Automatic annotation (TrEMBL):
The gene is jg15247. GO terms for biological process: chromosome organization involved in meiotic cell cycle; DNA recombinase assembly; DNA strand invasion; mitotic recombination; reciprocal meiotic recombination. PROSITE patterns: RECA_3 (PS50163). It holds the Pfam family Rad51. Residues 6-71 form the RecA family profile domain. Keywords: ATP-binding, Nucleotide-binding. This is Jg15247 protein.
Length: 71
């Protein structure tokens, strides 16, 4: 059994979707999409927010914490 009967359909436009379903979607105000960039860089994209436009920021995780991404 599956909770999402359409999960195995291959003709979807974008098969990636946030985890947590409706519970997290309604409990959070702003959702972020995090992905790995080149090298040690990471990319955070504002996925859904009532106050902020959709945009991306690149950053790096270092021994000292989160830092600006190196080009």
């Amino acid at each position: 059994m599956t909770a999402d009967p359409g999960a195995t359909l291959s003709f979807q436009a974008d098969p990636k979707k946030p985890i947590g379903g409706n519970i997290l979607a309604h409990a959070s105000t702003t959702r972020l999409y995090l992905r790995k960039g080149r090298g040690e860089n990471r990319i955070a994209k504002i996925y859904d927010s009532p106050d902020l436009p959709e945009s991306e920021a690149t950053f790096a995780i270092t021994n000292g914490g989160i830092a600006d991404a190196k080009d």
